[in-house]
Amino acid sequence: MTSAILTLVGKPGCHLCDQARVVIEQVLAELVGHPNAPALALTEVSILEDAELHARFVEEIPVLLINGRVHNYWHIDPERLRAALLAL
């Protein structure tokens, strides 16, 4: 079975990060039990705790990474995310 590690890069108090988290969690919940869905795990990291991430993404949060590669900045489109995960 394929797996996908989703990493939400943001910071505390970021309303766009909160919105992105809701969209991501909804998509992940929809994919539970889907025959084509990979094994999914979501982690969150703060740019305030990682100087490299801060330097790279300070103007772009939230950023969603899928298996370490940038999937989206700022707003997470649920249909695009669902399609990307099912295509893994």
Describe, in short, the structure shown.
The protein is built from three helices and four strands, in the order E-H-E-H-E-E-H.
What does this structure look like?
- By secondary structure, the protein is of the alpha+beta class.
- The chain has one domain (3-86): Glutaredoxin.
- It contains 3 helices and 4 strands.
- Strands 2-1-3-4 form a 4-stranded mixed beta sheet, with helices on both faces.
- Strand 1, helix 1 and strand 2 form a beta-alpha-beta unit.
- The longest helix is centred in the first third of the chain and has 17 residues, at 15-31.
- The chain is globular, with a radius of gyration of 13 Å.
- The N and C termini lie close together (10 Å).
- 20% of the residues are buried.
The total beta strand count reads 4
- Looking at the structure, what is the overall shape? globular
Residue share in helix: 25-40%
- Strand content is 25-35%
Rg (C-alpha, Å): 13 Å
Assign the CATH superfamily: Glutaredoxin
Structural class, please? alpha+beta
Low-confidence stretches: none
Please give the CATH architecture.
Answer: 3-Layer(aba) Sandwich
CATH topology label = Glutaredoxin
The separation of the N and C termini measures 10 Å
What is the number of independent domains? 1
Overall mean pLDDT: 96
What is the ordering of alpha helices and beta strands?
A: EHEHEEH
Strand order of the largest sheet: 2-1-3-4
Please tally the helical runs, counting DSSP H or I stretches of 4 or more residues.
3
What would CATH call the class? Alpha Beta
Please outline the major beta sheet: 4 strands, mixed
